[in-house]
Amino acid sequence: METPPVESTRERLLNIAEQRFGEGGYEGTSLRAITVAAAANIAAVNYHFGSKEALLRAAVARAMAPVNTERRRRLDQLEAAGQPTAEQLIRAFIEPGLDLVLRRGERGAIVARFIGRVAFDPSRRIRELYAAEADPVEARYLAALQQALPRAAPESVAFGYVNMLGLLALHQSQALSRAPGTEDVDDASRLAENLIAFLVAAFDRGLRA
């Protein structure tokens, strides 16, 4: 039997930070609580990250990287093939977000809870920190949706886009109540299809000129 790889101090700090920040928020989680749980010390945080906020930033960047990468890949592929439709764009955006929770077991639930807590943190500074990681890709999707819906006013498309983000976050949070390891591929696919169909209809009916 192979011995599982040993986590580095940096990885332990990031893993514990995700869990603790997701449970208690940034202000409600002390750096000491993180270092004790990670069997590390403040000096290790300063060495690897520089500060508590820098640790949060690194955890957000790591958590968002797979979703951002997949969304960017899908959008690049769609745009290379021509003008994507609103439905194609919605699917390319929604599926990676749901996949974060529904098909990655316990790890997915921890990351999704963490991202949700940071994205809706009461502190504007913390929300802006999250946005710095998410906005570059999200801005491309918003621009692409505006091109795919030329008859709709840009502010109307932006309104629909914000509501799409909210619905995605809602379904992610609901999925967190499921026990790790009980994910069903058919259930996950059905949820994605239902949400995509609803959003396509909402954009089509709500944003007509």
TrEMBL record:
Keyword Magnesium belongs to the record: no
Keywords: DNA-binding, Transcription, Transcription regulation
Alphabetical list of InterPro entries matching this protein: DNA-bd_HTH_TetR-type_CS (IPR023772), Homeodomain-like_sf (IPR009057), HTH-type_TetR-like_transc_reg (IPR050109), HTH_TetR (IPR001647), PsrA_TetR_C (IPR041586), Tet_transcr_reg_TetR-rel_C_sf (IPR036271)
PROSITE patterns with a match to the protein in the record: HTH_TETR_1, HTH_TETR_2
Top-level taxon of the source organism: Bacteria
Keyword Transcription belongs to the record: yes
DNA-binding segment(s): 30-49
Any Pfam family the entry gives: TetR_C_30
Every HTH tetR-type domain range: 7-67
Full protein name: TetR/AcrR family transcriptional regulator
Organism the protein comes from: Kribbella lupini
